[in-house]
Amino acid sequence: MMNMDIKNKITETMLDENLPQLCIDVFLSQYNKMIAGEESVIREDQVKPVFEVVDLESLPDHSAEGEAVLNQAVMLKLNGGLGTGMGLEKAKSLLKAKDGLSFLEIIVKQVLSQRKSFKSDLPLVFMNSFSTEADTQTVLDKFPELLQGQKGIPFTFVQNKVPKILIDNKQPAQWPNDPSKTWCPPGHGDIYTVLQTSGVLDQLLEQGIKYAFISNSDNLGANLNLSVLGYFAEQEASFMMEVADRTAADRKGGHLAESVEGGLLLRESAQCHEDDIESFQDITQYKYFNTNNLWIRLDRLKDLLDKKNGIVDLPLIQNKKTIDPRDASSPRVIQMETAMGSAIASFKDSIAIRIPKARFIPIKTTNELLGLWSNAFILDDESLVTINPSRKVGYIVVNLESKYYKNIDDLEARFPEGVPDLLECEKLTITGDVIFGKNVKLIGNVVINNDTGKQLTIDSNSVLQG
Questions:
Q1: Residue 263 buriedness (CB in 10 A; 0-12 / 13-18 / 19+)
Q2: Where in the chain is the domain with CATH 3.90.550.10?
């Protein structure tokens, strides 16, 4: 256990930032785990594979059941991320995603469309960070009609922040050069704390809302599907995770497993012991990964929180970095985080459902963003992003050399006349500096390699195949 001096110092530091007491209590419980040497490692002999889960595409349609409980549902989006990985310093959801619309605007239009189609209320709520709150509110102000159907529930609540901890002495970090760098987000597992401290959980329950669908704002495939809602309601489960097939590209990511003591759990790569890496990465053994599309019964969550003094006991994830990510000589710190999906182990009746690729279209890099911008995807009449029905070669795979394409500004500069026609392109790989003219068409598996050291121009109206 920590000594009282450190506990008091952490408490005082967090109170000075006006953080709620429950946030402090949760952080101190995680800090105690770290001091006790808990690495949150889940060893191979503690789990067993899940070889089969219910497949959404094989289920009977549950849309009628979903429509019957739609007025008891809320769509909740995790929206705290900045587009720093793409060279941005604003909310990632403000990026243009499709047809000139941002991720945020498309999400709003999806909800407005569903409300109209089913003549039902469907509140939309965003969990923002301090960095994304103002930007998000500015966009939402453009949609006054969104207020109808909110049932008085606020559009947003703001995620907490927690202190970084020095590795050498386990004290809260100090950095006079830039005090803001002594703080970090606590991971999306913080949602269970903020739902309480913001009052939003109680507001939702007071309005009779008990089915929460939670997903990432950069995944435009994650709409509130009536059949999935209906299935979740019919199962009477407290928690449901949407999972997808693990491929070779996903082998280093977290996976669904079952505890040897019974019940589902999520094992992240940070929780894998070095001796278990080979089995952890075996996609034939651990077949499913967490898409972070989660369904939670809010009344059951409330019951759990009441029993646990407001704390969902999630495994600790320790990320070790320098206090200033851009200064390798700055002090080494631990960023303590938790993952929202880990709560699957907190409910003994948790279930999982396998979803098709169409419900998982995350945009994490400019590779995926270029594919989304192209005609390989369309935005349909209900503002849903789907694969172009005219496409015959599956999902587009794009690999761009990060030196020239990682940042948004660089990407846009190399496609000044628009994205090439990728309708018949299976895979696009570009190395070197390449700029594209207008109306370029790419077919099949296209590899463009420019090792001249000078920018290469693909002429307008070119057709490249292979």
A1: middle
A2: 4-359
User: For residue 43, how many other CB atoms are within 10 A of its CB?
Assistant: 12
Tokens in use for 205? 């329950």
Instruction: Please report the DSSP string for 163-195 in residue order.
Output: E-EETTT-PBP--TT-GGGGEE---GGGHHHHH
Q: What is the pLDDT of residue 289?
A: 94
For residue 2, the model assigns a pLDDT of 59
pLDDT at 28: 96
Give the tens place of pLDDT for each residue, 33-46: 998 877 678 899 99
User: Which residue type, as a one-letter code, is found at position 33?
Assistant: K
Report, at the CATH architecture level, how domain 366-465 is classified: 3 Solenoid (2.160)
Fold exhibited by the domain 4-359: Spore Coat Polysaccharide Biosynthesis Protein SpsA; Chain A (3.90.550)
Q: In the prediction, which pLDDT does 37 show?
A: 79
Q: What is the pLDDT of residue 270?
A: 80
CA 264, 267, 271, 277 dihedral sign is positive
Tokens 């396998």 identify what position? 354
Coil, helix or strand at residue 280: helix
The residues carrying an active-site annotation are 364
**DSSP-derived secondary structure letter, 92:** G
Q: Residues spanned by CATH 2.160.10.10 within the chain?
A: 366-465
Whole-structure pTM value: 0.93
Q: 53 vs 18, 121, 158, 440, CA distance in Å?
A: 44, 31, 34, 43
Q: Give helix then strand counts, H and E, for the chain.
A: 13, 26
Q: How far apart are CA 443 and CA 375, in angstroms?
A: 13
Ranges of residues in the chain whose predicted pLDDT is under 50: none
